[in-house]
Amino acid sequence: MNKLTNKNIVLGVCGSIAAYKSADLIRRLTELGANIRVVMTQSANEFITPLTLQTLSQNPVHQHLLDCDSESNMSHIELARWADIILIAPCSANFIAKLAHGAADDLLSTVCLATRSPIIIVPAMNNAMWENPATQENIHTLEKREVIRFGPAAGNQACGETGLGRMQEPVQIINNLNEMFQAKLLHGQHILITAGPTQEDIDPVRYISNRSSGKMGFAIAKAAVEAGSKVTLICGPVQRSTPRHVDRIDVRTAEQMNTAVSNFVTQADIFISTAAVADYRPQVTQSEKIKKTSEDLKLELVRNPDILLNVANAANPPFTVGFAAETNNVKENALTKLKLKSLDMIAANQVGNEKGGFDSDENALAVFWPGGEILLPMATKEKIARELIAIVAERFQVSRFSETNPIIKNR
Fold it and tell me: Residues 14, 68, 112, 159: which is the catalytic one?
């Protein structure tokens, strides 16, 4: 499915022999209905002419930071605001270094620094340059800042060597863009998401918690923004960067999360509960550290509030999506939870295996709703999140239609 129609794309072109692929990429993107503004670095002019890219994009090519003619029409700030995405293809090792260190000494680097839109790099360089520790450290820095990377691909290179470093082909870049973008199916909707673990204090130095990393919840928050939603993310104690355009509220205990959810849920159209909330907490939190004075230690635990149950059974609940992390009988346990808590949907995954679940960058989900189910096979959590948001959007629209149509609702 083409999701690039009417997307505003600033295409950055750096100095690389792979710049010839940019021409084909522009042609394909414009055929799909995307609006392209090209920004070339000075070294890119050595490999391909601005006239070629101007002809294909049907728009003037921007090259100079202090170009009076360009500034009068679309300055670096205007370009940064206009763009739905900044796509840099090819992206050289030099520009990766500039981006990692926040340089702003030419038009392209300044646009990147000024934008609030996603930035995507498509590396193209010699395999030794790609493997160099300096380049890898810069890539790691950009990944922490949520700069998206396509590639590089492996194969024969212009220098005669073989290995990682080739720029992805235009067809693959477009496929990746289509996977990344969600149609604005949830435009104007407010989504409330919980993520991460909770910590339940035993004494001033110990607590009960779990292995939840928050990665899935943060990926869902990012995908929900891409789908056009206003997103509020309530998260337990995790060290993760907040996705762009997401309102974040940090909590630590289950009771704190319950209070935060109660404060915001009446404003939400959709509630997605990915947090691994502790079911129990110590009945008494000791004011001083418990000393090791005996062979046994007994803790009396009491139930924490069931946040998901309370939201789903409120007087006017949002569309409610639960998560079930199971070690066995995944489908059976998920369906039981779906029914007992009166959920609109539940996403279940198996944890405790070698791949997927807690701490992993990948996941697989089985998604259930009354009368339907779908399996999302193992993939990156970012991809799984986009697929899940698409399903949530579809089921949310169905639920809204049934609520306003008595014939459908009473069936």
Answer: 159
